[in-house]
Specification:
The chain has two helices and five strands, in the order αβββαββ. With 111 residues, it is α+β, with helices and mostly antiparallel strands. A five-stranded antiparallel beta sheet has the order 1-2-3-5-4. It binds guanosine-5'-monophosphate (5GP) and zinc ion (ZN).
């Protein structure tokens, strides 16, 4: 399949900042803050509504996110997780990704 995040997750393109058996993470090409990391499952999952694997979901949120927050130094002051889903959710790449954004004060509401 010609999916850009599948290629990045396989290590065929760009640089991974984190990798384990099931998950990969890399810096966003168009960062919206000093820290802007994309966390993706290695298997192709289109979006959060397609993520059937509870273990993988738990792994991402309870293990990978804290590790990357610590590694990028945003664990102390806080950060934001964003999972854009579908057209109205603003999803532009149809491979599930969790944005981990930090290093500056976030505002609310989002645009
Ligand atoms: P979405 O809008 O789908 O939630 O987020 C897609 C994100 O992927 C955007 O923030 C965009 O900058 C990033 N992105 C798109 N293509 C690439 C790429 O080829 N490499 C990297 N590192 N990021 C990308
Ligand atoms: Zn993919």
């Amino acid at each position: 399949m010609d999916c850009i995040f599948c290629k990045i997750a396989r290590g065929e393109l760009g640089t991974l900042i984190y990798e384990d058996e099931t998950v990969a993470a890399f810096n966003d090409a168009n960062p919206q803050a000093p820290v802007h990391v994309l966390i993706v499952p290695k298997i192709h999952v289109a979006n959060i509504t397609e993520l059937a694997d509870k273990n993988l979901a738990a792994h991402i949120f309870t293990e990978v996110v804290p590790k990357i927050a610590q590694k990028t130094g945003v664990d102390k002051n806080g950060f934001r997780l964003v999972v854009n889903t579908g057209d109205e959710g603003g999803q532009t790449v149809n491979h599930l990704h969790v944005h981990l954004i930090g290093g500056r004060k976030m505002t609310w509401p989002p645009g």
